[in-house]
Design brief:
CATH class of the largest domain: Alpha Beta
Largest sheet: 9 strands, mixed
CATH superfamily of the largest domain: P-loop containing nucleotide triphosphate hydrolases
Number of helices: 15
Order of helices and strands: EHEEHHEEHHEEEHEHHEHEHEHEEHHHH
Radius of gyration: 28 Å
Structural class: alpha/beta
Number of strands: 14
């Protein structure tokens, strides 16, 4: 039987909208028709959304399918599998922008595990860079064999932004990831993830993918709705965004200050939960709707000339003790906060325990408060992606990694070591345990710079400098209360007695582990 070649139908992309939007978008309404705008007629504080014209796209990427070549590859694949003692036939061929999926139906009695172990042998026999075998395809009675195309297509970010999958996505924080192996647009909602772990070796396309995620937020939301905290210990990847109005503070490059920023995010999460509890709502969307409704009601009353008086407090009995005044809650619109860490490994080396605790608390609790994390690392080892961090990040992306061990560390299964690099990724979506292969969208540094320059013209960022201020100590021990070590006093006495601050000595005298002894010495 001849295999069926399934080719996705070309999708006509809409013309890019070039209009500047001068009012805050509500819901998912489309921008108004193109019209000439004059800066001097616009009210102060007007925000313009970036235009898709700032991004590049080299035109139609739908190349004709070479059916003859695909049929020849299908027959060659059947022959090579037969040489290894695996009988069966290719039933369907699904060409994509980067790889082609061949669906192979094994003959009765052939074990699937036998096919899965032939990836390297098939790659050599077919002279392919690498081959990934999905055995079996979930919900299907076939094995998927993904073979790289001879000519690879580039997936442009502008093309993803123009697609209906992105324009009409119902999510709160949609991220444009790229296209799957069949050429379908892949967009996922960060609010549902609710946090994302990204790993990949040097040159795998990890940093470009982080840029596409950031631009997905910048093109869709104003600084009133989304604020960003960027942490970049390498001082290279995220520094290009310095000065955009969405930032809550300048790009953080010092790992110790990064620890303070994450600790502030934990405190902000707790503050937001108090605000939501006070209003009787369960998440940030319900809170913002209630605040907007109350503000509208106040405006209506003010327009009608109605003056609202505060109720007078009841007189207190002179003999009754006066209660402590409760902390006054300041209600107002709450933006989403997205914390982006470009290199988690550098932070874990400097302040591993503190970083791990803050990340774990945010990952466990911050979803309803509108605070979300995107953590990226090029060293996916167990000392960086610890069990505690991984357990709280069910949504993960892995680009090409060096070994099967690294792939298992990130995804809990192998496969990422067989990727092609340059944006080729395995995506573990929220709520499923099924990996999805995605070819990441490409955006150049020049395009990012154009968008950043456009946003900087909107006005100066309003930084909150208090974020990087350490909270005041509540005790007088020289160590914060939440980090107080019960061996502190003994250690202090030993150092004073010997007049020598030695980690190894504290380990011997107090029978401590290296990390604990090192923290005590560092606090001294």
């Amino acid at each position: 039987l001849e295999p069926v070649i399934v080719q996705p139908e070309p999708v006509a992309l809409p013309e890019p909208k070039t209009t500047r939007i001068t009012t805050r978008r509500k819901g998912r309404k489309q921008p108004p028709p193109d019209q000439e705008s004059f800066d001097f007629l616009e009210p102060e504080g007007t925000y313009h959304y970036p235009s898709l014209n700032l991004l590049d796209h080299d035109g139609d990427t739908n190349r004709p399918v070479d059916r003859e070549a695909l049929m020849m590859n299908a027959r060659l694949l059947e022959k090579k599998l037969g040489d290894f003692g695996v009988e069966g036939e290719v039933t369907e061929v699904k060409p994509g922008p980067v790889v082609t999926m061949y669906e192979f139906a094994p003959a009765p009695g052939v074990k699937v595990n036998k096919i899965a172990g032939l990836a390297d042998d098939l790659a050599m026999a077919l002279q392919a860079l690498s081959i990934r075998i999905v055995a079996p395809i979930p919900g299907r009675g076939v094995v998927g064999i993904e073979i790289p195309n001879k000519e690879r297509e580039t997936v442009y970010l502008k093309e993803i932004f123009q697609s209906n999958d992105f324009l009409k996505h119902p999510g709160k924080l949609p991220l444009a990831l790229g296209k799957d192996i069949f050429g379908n647009t892949v967009v996922s909602d960060l609010a549902k993830m609710p946090h994302l772990l990204v790993a990949g070796s040097t040159g795998s396309g990890k940093s470009v993918s982080v840029n596409t995620m950031i631009l997905s937020l910048l093109f869709r939301w104003s600084p009133k709705d989304v604020r960003l905290i960027m942490i970049d210990p390498k001082m290279l990847e995220l520094s290009i965004y310095e000065g955009i109005p969405h930032l809550l503070l300048p790009v953080v490059t010092d790992p110790k200050k990064a620890n303070l920023a994450l600790a502030w995010a934990v405190r902000e999460m707790e503050r937001r939960y108090k605000l939501m509890a006070d209003k009787g709502v369960r998440n940030i969307d319900g809170y913002n709707k209630k605040i907007a409704k109350e503000e509208k009601e106040k405006e209506e009353l003010a327009r009608k000339g109605v003056i609202q008086l505060e109720p007078e407090p009841e007189p207190l009995d002179p003999d009754t003790p006066v209660p402590e005044p409760e902390e006054e809650l300041e209600h107002g619109h709450l933006p989403y906060i997205v914390v982006i860490v470009d290199e988690l490994a550098d932070l874990m080396m400097v302040a591993g325990r503190e970083i791990e605790e803050s990340v774990a608390r945010l990952a466990q609790m911050a979803r309803a408060s509108g605070i979300h994390l995107i953590l990226a690392t090029q060293r996916p080892s167990v000392d960086v992606i610890t069990g505690l961090i991984k357990a709280n990040f069910p949504t993960r992306i892995s680009f090409k990694v060096f070994s099967r061990t690294d792939s298992r560390t990130v995804l809990d299964q192998m496969g990422a070591e067989s990727l092609l690099g340059s944006g080729d990724m395995l995506f573990l979506p929220p709520g499923t345990g099924v990996l999805q292969r995605v070819h990441g969208a490409f955006v150049s540094e020049l395009e990012v710079q154009r968008v950043v320059d456009f946003l900087k013209k909107q006005g100066d960022p309003e930084y909150d400098r208090s974020i990087l201020e350490a909270p005041a100590d509540k005790g007088g021990s020289g160590v914060e209360d939440d980090e107080y070590d019960e061996k502190w006093d003994e250690a202090l006495a030993i150092v004073a007695e010997t007049r020598q601050a030695s980690i190894s000595m504290l380990q011997r005298r107090l029978r401590l582990g290296y990390n604990r002894a090192a923290r005590i010495i560092e606090k001294m």
